[in-house]
Design a protein that fits this description.
Blueprint: H1 11-14, E1 17-20, E2 30-33, E3 46-52, H2 60-73, E4 76-79, H3 97-117, E5 124-134, H4 136-143, E6 151-155, E7 178-183, E8 215-220, H5 231-245
Parallel strand pairs: 3-4, 3-5, 5-6, 6-7, 7-8
Antiparallel strand pairs: 1-2, 1-4
Length: about 250
């Protein structure tokens, strides 16, 4: 019987939004807070996509993305709730870089929290993990220095020095499978963004991903900043994740 021992997990993980495919908690897919999970059917541990939400927190776009991932790929999708922290700092761009970096440090902690929680999540196949993030969450996914994840998807973050970070400080290594999906005119991190005025930026990750044979940058024309639910983005992510979890 699958179960989750969540009573002693940190709040960002206890209050994480979880989506499971049909057959784990009944005939229909299941979505809810991790703390509410009470699976009723036995089964094999599932691959897990850890998704780091952006600065707006968990919202309908995030939930739709998780439902898509579980329905399409038959995997678990978990998004820690960064705002479940007490007195979690917030910012309004443009802000001093120290404010951004204080939040980036918290987002790194949330990845570590999830990895530490895996022994309490027996329905997760800890050998088949993928890390994804969007915008602020994309910084977290890019900076993580561990080797626990089979691959990473970074949405809406250019992996380069710009107004949002003291420096990019990417944590992925040269052989990391990585998919970076960006708008070709991102309003925050693009070359012509108002926030990057006076800075020498490319607005993409070409230089950051140079020399990485398993990495790919995809620029989506005229796309919004939050783009992970666009049909092209989903198509790219489907192929990437199927390759990881084959």
């Amino acid at each position: 019987m699958l179960r989750t021992d969540s009573a002693y997990l940190p709040e960002p993980i206890r209050q994480a939004m979880l989506t499971l495919p049909a057959g784990v908690c009944g005939d229909a897919p299941w979505q809810g807070r991790l703390a509410a999970l009470t699976p009723t059917r036995p089964g094999q541990p599932l691959p897990l996509l850890l998704f780091m939400h952006g600065s707006s927190g968990l919202n309908e776009q995030t939930l739709a993305f998780q439902r898509w991932a579980s329905d399409t790929l038959g995997i678990a999708a978990l998004a820690p709730d960064s705002f479940a922290r007490r007195k979690r700092p917030r910012y309004q761009s443009p802000a001093p870089v120290e404010q951004y970096e204080a939040v980036h440090a918290l987002r790194q902690e949330e990845i570590a929290m999830l990895l530490a929680a895996l022994p309490r999540l027996p329905w997760v196949d800890s050998q088949r993990l993928a890390l994804a993030g969007s915008s602020e969450g994309g910084v977290a996914a890019a900076r993580w220095r561990g080797q626990e994840f089979a691959g990473r998807i970074i949405y809406g973050w250019s992996c380069e020095d710009n107004y949002f970070v003291e420096k990019a400080d990417n944590g992925f290594n040269a052989d990391c499978p990585l998919l970076n999906l960006l708008s070709d005119a991102d309003p925050f991190f693009g070359r012509d963004s108002q926030y990057n005025r006076g800075r020498q930026v490319d607005g993409d990750s070409q230089r950051a991903l140079a020399g990485m044979p398993k990495a790919r940058l995809v620029l989506l024309p005229n796309a919004p900043h939050t783009l992970y639910n666009l049909p092209e983005a989903r198509m790219q992510a489907t192929a990437f994740l199927r390759g990881l979890f084959a």
